[in-house]
Design goal:
By secondary structure, the protein is of the alpha+beta class. The protein has helices spanning 8-14, 64-70, 141-154, 180-190, 217-229; strands at 4-7, 25-28, 36-43, 49-54, 73-75, 85-87, 90-93, 96-99, 119-121, 125-126, 170-175, 198-200, 204-205, 212-213, 234-240. The strands form five sheets. Strands 1, 2, 3, 4, 7 and 8 form a six-stranded mixed sheet that branches. The protein is elongated.
């Protein structure tokens, strides 16, 4: 029997309506390995083929000739989950079927209207853009971001534009290294900040009262959006460090 291997998590998340318990599973005993579970999968409209649940690896393997026969697009580009990428147009288990509806968006630049950049700090930090303050450890990156937050909270001019007061606004800080009480608040006070305009995110409280956990940008981005909308005047968001 020829086996086709695929990642269990990929199957489940690609077909959210799939209920494995409702599909016929087959247990196959292997001579030199643990038994495997098989499920019949149709790829790109093919006949049902036995796929084995591969739960212990981040990489899924399939014979190159089988991939070509099934019309699975492959790439040799390295990725975080394995040596390359592969994509099927459709994937079906039983009556559950997932289709690839992703399409590239192409825009002709002749249809794009030029826009002026809106600046938070002229020619240094634009509004509504991602900016990175990079440098070696201990050079004062966190100190600079808190000084910026303090100036925004009171409308104090930037150090190179002392005659130009800035628009007052709020700042949201996500700091995973410095303590709020022993480091961040004292630095804000020393910079003359209006701390009523500065909000920190120490963590996320679960609604099921299971406790608190660290903020996760992929899971909690909608919560961050809600916090940004709440004051209505957020001008700066700080993530320190970015790799956190």
């Amino acid at each position: 029997m020829r086996l086709h291997f695929c990642c269990l998590l990929w199957l489940i998340f690609t077909i959210p309506t799939l209920s494995v318990a409702q599909e016929p599973l087959e247990v196959v005993e292997l001579r030199y390995a643990a038994p495997v579970l098989l499920v019949q999968v149709r790829v790109n409209g093919s006949r049902p083929l036995p796929f084995a649940f591969d739960t212990g690896s981040t990489t899924s393997l399939i014979d190159a000739r089988v991939a070509r026969r099934l019309g699975i697009e492959t790439s040799e580009r390295p990725g975080a989950g394995g040596p390359g990428f592969a994509r099927a147009r459709t994937l079906a288990v039983g009556k559950a079927e997932a289709k690839s509806n992703s399409r590239l968006i192409s825009v002709c630049m002749a249809d794009v209207q030029p826009e002026r950049i809106k600046w938070l700090w002229s020619c240094r930090y634009p509004l509504s853009k991602l900016s990175i303050l990079a440098g070696m450890q201990g050079q004062g990156k966190s100190f600079v971001t808190l000084d910026m937050a303090a100036r925004i909270s009171t409308g104090t001019a930037w150090p190179d534009e002392r005659d130009l007061p800035i628009e007052v606004g709020s700042t949201i800080i996500l700091s995973l290294e410095d303590g709020l009480g022993d480091t961040i608040r004292p630095r804000l006070d020393a910079a003359g900040a209006d701390v009523r305009k500065i909000h920190a995110i120490p963590g996320v409280h679960e609604v099921d009262d299971s406790g608190e956990r660290t903020f996760n940008i992929t899971r909690d981005v909608f919560l961050l959006e809600e916090l940004i909308d709440k004051p209505g005047d957020v001008r700066l968001g700080v993530v320190d460090p970015l790799t956190g």
